[in-house]
Design brief:
single chain; alpha/beta; Collagenase (Catalytic Domain); 6-stranded mixed sheet
């Protein structure tokens, strides 16, 4: 009843406001009396209060509509949220004044974001047996001289006198160090290698506690490491505990050899032979097989080239 009275009071107050310019006090009194007689004193007072407020110019704002309950699953239309909807703060783009979606963050208006960059293409695959990278190898006459030890270790594969071998590559050479190291070890521990000749076998180490080492270096660095031997930026050497392989020869081979793979076997076995105590041999005669310690890079002196210390070993 009170709610109904308030509604009637509000409606009657509209009539009071509409007629108050002609007979304001009388109109208000009549309306308030009618309301009080029918709805009670509380309703009549409401009419009187409304009249007084209208006359004094004080108007109250209409009450805000009650928020809808979540029980009916309705959405808050004013905020644009509800079940299954997100706000702009939750990642939905807000429309611009033109109705087009707003530009992505960091992208100027009117410009499209760039497509994702393609993954980098893999580099050249290392050549098996040498580790060379690419088909067109450039031999730089001189590099930094910094030697990088190839990481890895492996026990000797055979019985005999074990040499702990460290392998290093000069920084900047176009070669995969791991593949190069595997090529060196495969040559030295081949049955036709030094184990077949004198029982020597090689373990791989990357520590500084080594007995011998193999270094692949640019021509200029080869000259420095081989001094006082004269390598003329062209040949390799075995000096003290180090076999220095000239990268020029590793990459380009020798005209005295038909197959560069066999020349590389010779190069490793010959220079390491110096490190483990062997000296140069001479060619036994025209058409004879050379021994591994015959110099065979610039010429074989008429001998048939030989890459192995024990070529007939199984």
């Amino acid at each position: 009843m009170v709610a109904l009275g308030l509604c009637l009071a509000v409606g009657l107050c509209g009539g009071v406001v509409a007629t108050m310019t002609t007979e304001p006090d009388a109109s208000a009194a009549v309306v308030a009396g009618v309301v009080e007689d029918n709805l009670g004193a509380e309703a009549g007072d409401a009419v009187r209060n409304a009249y007084e407020a209208a006359r004094s110019g004080n108007r109250t704002s209409p009450p805000a509509p009650a928020a809808s309950s979540g029980a009916d699953g309705g959405a808050d239309v004013a905020s644009g949220t509800g079940a299954g909807l997100g706000t702009a703060a939750e990642g939905l783009p807000e429309p611009s004044a033109s109705g087009e979606p707003a530009a992505s963050a960091g992208v100027p208006p009117g410009e499209k974001s760039a497509p994702p960059s393609p993954p980098p293409s893999p580099g050249p695959k290392p050549e098996p047996g040498s580790g060379l990278l690419g088909t067109r190898i450039t031999v730089e006459p001189e590099l930094s001289g910094r030697l990088v030890v190839v990481s890895g270790s492996r026990p000797a594969p055979a019985e005999g006198k074990v040499w702990r071998l460290q392998i290093a590559v000069e920084k900047g050479l176009p070669v995969d160090p791991k593949v190069f190291a595997e090529a060196v070890l495969a040559t030295l521990n081949d049955p036709r290698g030094w184990n077949g000749a004198d029982g020597t076998t090689f373990a791989w180490t990357d520590s500084e506690r080594y007995d011998a080492r193999v270094v692949l270096a640019s021509p200029g660095t080869t000259d420095e490491l081989c001094f006082p031997l004269d390598t003329a930026s062209s040949v390799s050497c075995g000096i003290e505990e180090t076999a220095v392989l000239n990268f020029k020869r590793w990459a380009k081979g020798s005209k005295a050899w038909k197959e560069i793979a066999n020349y590389r076997h010779y190069l490793v076995n010959h220079e390491v032979g110096h490190v483990i105590g062997y000296h140069h041999d001479l060619c036994a005669g025209e058409g004879e097989h050379a021994t591994i310690m015959v110099q065979q890079t610039t010429t074989t002196s008429g001998c048939i080239p030989e890459a192995w210390p024990a070529p007939n070993a199984d």
